[in-house]
Amino acid sequence: MTLPRTPEEGIAFLRSLPPSGIRLGLDRIEKALEILGHPETRFPALQVAGTNGKGSTCAFAANCLAVGGYRVGLYTSPHLLRVNERIQINGEEISDRLLGERILEVLERYPVAEQQPFPLTLFEFGTLVALWHFSREKVDLAVLETGLGGRLDATTSAYVAVTAIAPISYDHQEYLGNTLREIAGEKAGILKAGIPVAVSRQPREALEVIEARALELKAPVHLEGRDFPGDPGVPLSLRGPHQIQNAALATASLELLRDCGFALTPEQVRRGLATTRWPGRLEEVSSNPLVLLDAAHNVAGIEVLAQALGVLYPTRKVHLVFGVLADKDYQAMIRRLFPLCKSVHLAPVPSSRSLHPARYLPEAMALCPDVTAHVSLSDALEQARRRAGKTDLVLGAGSLYVVGALRGLV
User: What is the pTM of this model?
Assistant: First the structure.
């Protein structure tokens, strides 16, 4: 294959990699890191796994560290609008020019890059570029959100100082297993020998797996409700009751990082938690009518969203713009959310994995008296806005792809 020669071509190359390509395993990323001279060893990392809340936890922790004066890399996935969102330093996403240059630098040093097909997935290559970028920028610490699972995820190749596990529930069963014990086993794969782990409150069967693995590795476990409180007790910038738990996990992780030399004052933590930004999480993006976007994309996320709606918008009627991927437990998702809505507007997700609205329209109509299937998210949003008027609420949910697309439309 012809490799890119300019920064612009580098970004085009990155975007050309299939977004849905999932190939679990560490051999490819570890070989690539070895070729690049192990950039991941030049800074310690906080790695966060879990099913829901891991991105918010990463954002809280990274912002607190930045407020404390540290130079902090943040790597998350997926992105909402621009791939640049995945790679940030102190809250600033990497520029197009620098991203393109970093891609060229990596490809120049990676001799198997000319193979067809390209040896790495989008996530693996993005992780490689992020770790290379953080090493070149001499960050003090990187905060890494695990992409899928943990045991075989590319971020697990990093040099971690502390690990953290957010709440575990069902998602990606085709890759991680069909029971909570199996899924927890994959998530617990981020644990390292002797490295402390902060753990959110978990279902019993998931916690048993985590604690057993930690015992094998002599990794100290700091558990919510036992070793740290589930509420940091300070105002948060991110809304919803679930963010209290995410902030608590971030705060516990920061306490563990203190032993690695990353000390923060209580005031710095308070300011960090109060100023964290994390788009697409109960985010109000427009008014008149109010448009709310939330990245809930599995059963547990929908449950959290439903609870938050009752707390934050108890009197608002909801007009839902919804799309979902075919590999999700969409039936459980719509059973929980659709009865709460005044109207539901189904649309395809901008992904090859989209579940077509016609496939579940009859089920949807049994759960809400006013359901319409649309050909696009823009049509669905326009109709939902019209139905909402000035006093009701338009909600976009069901998939990160939906949130990203809608965010670009409002």
Answer: 0.94
